[in-house]
Amino acid sequence: MTRTLPQPATEAIDLVTVLQALGDPVRLELVRTLAKEDEPRPCSIDKYDVEISAPTLSHHWRILREAGLTTTFVNGRTRWVELRREDVHSRFPGLLDAVLA
Amino acid sequence: MTRTLPQPATEAIDLVTVLQALGDPVRLELVRTLAKEDEPRPCSIDKYDVEISAPTLSHHWRILREAGLTTTFVNGRTRWVELRREDVHSRFPGLLDAVLA
DNA sequence: GGTACTATTTGATGATTGTCAAACCATCTA
DNA sequence: TAGATGGTTTGACAATCATCAAATAGTACC
Fold first, then answer.
1. Are A23 and B23 within 8 A, CB to CB?
2. What is the four-CA torsion angle of A35, A40, A45, A48, rounded to 10 degrees?
3. What are the contacts of A75-82 at 24+ separation with CB within 8 A?
4. In Å, how far is A72's CA from the nearest CA of chain B?
5. Taking the complete model, does pTM exceed 0.90, yes or no?
6. A contacts of B94 (beta carbons < 8 Å)
7. B positions 5-34 inside 8 Å of A (CB)
């Protein structure tokens, strides 16, 4: 019913890849938005205050997911994104907290 | 006698720029090496275990300095680089610690 | 089945990036 | 002053990246 898109295992999360993913203003803003709630958020373009097109947003979600920062759930026609807070924290303690502070 | 190359003020250090600077394997390694000692290190190519040319190393030092992560001192013909631990920590508490852990 | 809808993929484009060789600059020393 | 030295800047190149329009894929609803 609810499928999860492929993502790296916690142990496989790479620091350089994470920093690269966070080193983009749009993605940092997305991560900040996700961090406000501790549950999945829809990933539709109209739910975010960013000045990019839908394909570009989709591209950023992929970068974040493949870096190990987010999980994407597929449910019917809509998708949900969630920050992998605990996973990232267990791999790089304090990193997300510092970035989100 | 000892000159300091231009660098951003502590308050002007930008998070995205810092993350971009750290999001490169060579630069992350350089920062890690700097972090081992709490004093300036020479920036000559032969002092670092990196497989890049001198101009490329020079380029990376510039990126790190302009991001606000390092200070470069000029003394005669040689230069010294130092991690701006306290400055970065005061701007983004915990960030460097998390990255260097 | 057909249509509307959500979101991604494809393909293309302009900008940025990491890299090096060659030229250059400033400093030290003979 | 001339040569050697430490390091940077310039210029070029290939690779990567962020971006969008158009096409595509999968799902829901009538």
1. yes
2. -30
3. A75/A1, A75/A2, A75/A3, A78/A42, A78/A44, A79/A42, A79/A43, A80/A40, A80/A41, A80/A42, A80/A43, A81/A34, A81/A40, A81/A41, A81/A42, A81/A43, A82/A34, A82/A39, A82/A40, A82/A41
4. 23
5. yes
6. 94, 97-98, 101
7. 15-16, 19-25, 28
| List of chain A residues whose C-beta atoms are within 8 Å of the C-beta of residue B68 | none
C-alpha to C-alpha distance for B50 and B100, rounded to whole angstroms: 18
Distance (Å) from CA B17 to C1' C23? 31
Low-confidence ranges of chain B (pLDDT < 50): none
Report the topology of domain A2-100.
Arc Repressor Mutant, subunit A (1.10.10)
Flag whether residue B97 sits within 8 Å of chain A, measured between CB atoms. yes
Q: Given this model, what pLDDT does residue B88 score? A: 98
pLDDT at A26: 98
What are the φ and ψ backbone dihedral angles of B70, each rounded to 5 degrees?
A: -135, 160
Please tell me if residue B76 touches chain A, with a CB cutoff of 8 Å.
Answer: no
